[in-house]
Amino acid sequence: MTPSNVNFKRQILVPILGAVFFFSLASFKNDFFEIAKQIEIFTEMYKQLNMNYVDETNPAHLMDNAIEGMLSDLDPYTTFWTEQEVERAKINSRGEFTGIGANVSTRADKLIILEPWKDYPADKAGLKAGDEIIQIDGTNISDYNENAGELLQGSAGTEVTVTYMRQGKQNKATLKRAAVEIQAVPFFDMATPDIGYVILSKFNEKASRETKEAIKQLKERGAKKIILDLRGNPGGLLSEAVNVSNLFIEKDKLITSTQSTVEKFNKTYLTPRNAYDADIPLAVLINGRSASASEIVSGSIQDYDRGVVIGARSFGKGLVQRPRELSYGTQVKITISRYYTPSGRCIQALDYWNRDEDGNAVRTRKEDYKAFKTINSARTVFDGGGVDPDIKLASAAYSPITTSLLRENAIFDYATQYYYKHQYADLDKIQLTDADFNAFVAWIESRGFDFDTVTESAFAKAYLSAVNEELDDDIATSYKGMMQAIQNAKKKDMRDKKAEIMSLLTDEIVKRYFYREGLYKYQLKYNPEIQAAIKVLNNPAEYRKILS
To answer: Which residues are listed as membrane-spanning (predicted)?
Structure first.
C-alpha cells in the first residue's frame, strides 16, 4: 500500500470516526435530556399533588405506587427492593438467617405455616403445616399493614409468642428464635449400590461447594454414576451455575453467554478450572419449576452431551438480573441481559416486550422454536421455551390445571385435611390409590374450584362484544352450550393430568408425616423421575444412544 493511499484512508477514516462519535454523543445527550425532562415533570407533579390535593395524601404510598406502575410495564424480575428486602436477599444468598425455622405464607389476614423444619423452633413448639397464625406477640395479623412474616424474625435466643388456629381450634405457643442454615444441598444418598443421588435446591454461595462435597462422599461410598436433581430449583447466582457445571465439564468450556443493548453486559462465562469428574455418567432431573441457574446447568449439560436430562420442560427464564444500589439502603434489581446456552439457545419462554391485548406477556409458540445442534453429537435441541428434557415424564409436568391447583392452595389444603384423618408410622405405608385421587377430585368439585382457560376467556370476550352489539339474544343458547362443553372438558382434563397431580399430592402428604428428609427418602424409592434416571444409568447402551 502506497503512502498516498494510507493518507487518503486516514482522511476518510478520521471524519467517519468523528461522525460516529458526534452522533453517539448526540444520542446520549438526547437520552439524557429526555430523562432529565421527565424527572423534572414528575417531581413537580408529585410536589403539587402532595401540597394541593383535596384530601391528605401519603407521600410514601404515592411514590410506591408510582414505582410499581413504572416497573409493571417491564418484566416481573425488574423490581424495587426496600431495605428489608435487600437484607432478605443477602440472607438468601448466604443461606443463613435467624427465625422460627419454617416456611410461612401470607394469606388474607393470617400467616400459614407451609412447612416446619425438623428440630427447629417451630417444630419443637409443635407447629404443623396448615396452622394459621392470627396473632404474633399480641399483634393481630389482620391489623398489620406490612409484611407480617417479619414479626417472626429477631435475634437468636429471643422469644416470640404466636396464637394460631388448627382445625377450628385456637392455640398459643411460645418459640425461642434460633439461627437457621439453609443448605443448597439438603439431601444426598445412594439410590442404588453404584448410583449416587444429589438434590441441589438453590444456587446460593454454597451451591457448588456443597454439591462437590456430596459427590465426593457418594463416590467414597461406591457411586460410579450420579443423579443431580434440579427439580423445583428456582435458580440464584449465575457464578454458581457456572461452578456447578464445571464439576462435570472440562476447563475453558463456554457455559453461558449474555447479550444486552448495553455493551458492558455482553459477556462469556467459561469453566475456570479442571472438572471434578468429566467422565462419570450423569442424569439431571428438571421440571416446570426449574428456572434460571438450573436451566444454565441443565442446558450446558445437554448442549455438551454430558448427561441425560429427564423430567419435564423447565420454566424458561433466560434473563439475567443485577441489583443496583439506591439511596437509604434500597436497591433496584434490573434485567440487564439475556443469557444463551453453549449451543446458542435463549430459553426465555415469555416475551415481556410484546404483550397481548390484555397486557399479558406472549409465550413463544412451539412452531416458532428455532433448532440448534449440541456440540459433541450434533443432536437437535430447541430454544424459546425452557430446556426440553431428553426423557419426558408426565409425572414431572406442570400443566395449566396443576398450576391452578397449586396457585389456589388446593393440594396443600387437601393434604392438611388428609393428615388429620389418617395416621402413618411407616413411610412405606403411604401409597395413594385411585380411590384417594377420586376423593381429591370430589373434594375439589365440592369446593367449587375453577380456573379460566384461554379458550374460555376468548369466548367470554366474544360474548361481551355480542352483548354490546345487541346480538346476544341470537347466540345466548350457543354460548351457554359452548361454556358447558368447556367445563366438561376441564373436568376431563383434571383426570387426564392424574399422574402429575398424584405426584404433587403424594409429596405434600408424605412431607406432613416425615418432614422433608422423609420425602427425599420416599422419592428415592418411588418417584417416577428418579426411577427413570436409575433405569437409563443402568443401561449404558441406551445412555449412549440418547447422547449420540
So the answer is: none
